[in-house]
Design a protein that fits this description.
52% of the residues lie in helices and 4% in strands. The mean pLDDT is 97. Helix 1 crosses helix 2 and helix 2 crosses helix 3. The longest helix is centred in the middle third of the chain and has 13 residues. By secondary structure, the chain is mostly helical. The chain contains 6 helices and 2 strands; from the N terminus they run αβααβααα. The chain has a two-stranded parallel sheet. It has one domain: Arc Repressor Mutant, subunit A (Orthogonal Bundle).
Length: 113
């Protein structure tokens, strides 16, 4: 995967505010790629960013990530859904317009795509 694209995804993740989440598709829409590409970047490069703020469209995370994510969500004041799989995305989704603006500022130093 292109290093510039990886950097763009990671910078987008870093813009998600504390106590909020965004889906792979939300981030893909902002960066201009598909949700699977966002997932690939997160799987391979996302351990040093706020990965627990990136979920699938239902607000869920894969089983291996949930225990640590639950602790981080609790510290940020987010409550896990009764099924234990993640968060209600309708309750915690970041404002996507604000997120997109923050992303544009965060990648202003990168070459245009």
């Amino acid at each position: 995967m292109d290093e510039d694209l990886v950097e763009r995804v990671l910078r987008a993740v870093e813009q998600i505010p504390r106590g909020r989440i965004a889906s792979y598709g939300d981030l893909g829409g902002i960066v201009g790629i598909g949700p699977r590409q966002v997932g690939w970047v997160m799987r391979h490069y996302g351990s040093n960013v706020t990965w627990w703020r990136v979920t699938n469209a239902a607000g869920d995370l894969p089983a291996p990530l949930r225990d640590e994510a639950r602790q981080r969500w609790a510290r940020e004041g987010m409550l896990v859904k009764p099924n234990g799989l993640g968060l209600r995305i309708a309750d915690y989704r970041a404002d996507l317009a604000i997120l997109a603006d923050a992303y544009d500022r965060a990648v202003a130093d990168l070459p245009p795509r």
